[in-house]
Amino acid sequence: MLAFLLLAVLSVGGLVVRQSSLRYRAANAADAAQGKAPAFSWPAYFSWLRKRGREMWTKKTLSRAWAVLKSWSTDHYPGPLGWAFAGLVASFLYQAASGLAFAFFVPRGMFGLALLAHVGSGGLFALSLAAVLFWRARDYGPGKTGSSTFSGFACPVFKNLSRSEVGKMAFWALAFFGFIQIATALGSMLPVFTFRAQVAMIGIHRYSALALLLSALLFADVVFLPPPKKYGDTSLICPQKWTDK
Asked: Rounded to two decimals, what is the model's pTM?
């Protein structure tokens, strides 16, 4: 369990730092020398991050975020399909919150009403995910590209992926790990498997839940958060040689 907790902290924290540092670079790209990566300073970055963090929890920012999410869901999930999207978001948030809370603070593990609610929300998650995949899978298929060209989100491994392409990868990662979550949850409760197999499925369920959370964070960052208003030439963000100064 300790290994999982360390991995969870490092992976989630690493993803947040990576994505936010890319936005910090992009916001300062226009001031950098042509053809070179923007100068990066950890103190300046954390100062920028604290400022953005304070702005994030203001009433104005929260209302704006709700308006963006509502408008996006209305455009992409019209009519009754909006309930499928809402069910997916609500069930995912509860499962992520309850799973992480018990993993970090309750050595015994999940039990009681929290476990029953976790299992019940898992059923809602399975149905909602199936509806979302049925409705939206074609929009994330090969050849579907968005208008955004901010390619710095894939640095330094992939230098030429647009935000829409990263969003598609995150969407299918959500679908894959969501299926793993559903399959392992059902398998761990079925009497046809041995106790050792059920314990193994619980372990797989735990780690796939972490991968699902990372995929959801990346998808939300790419799809819902707008690219920086001032990013200039993307070669400043994703140069041929990824170096910090």
From this structure: 0.83
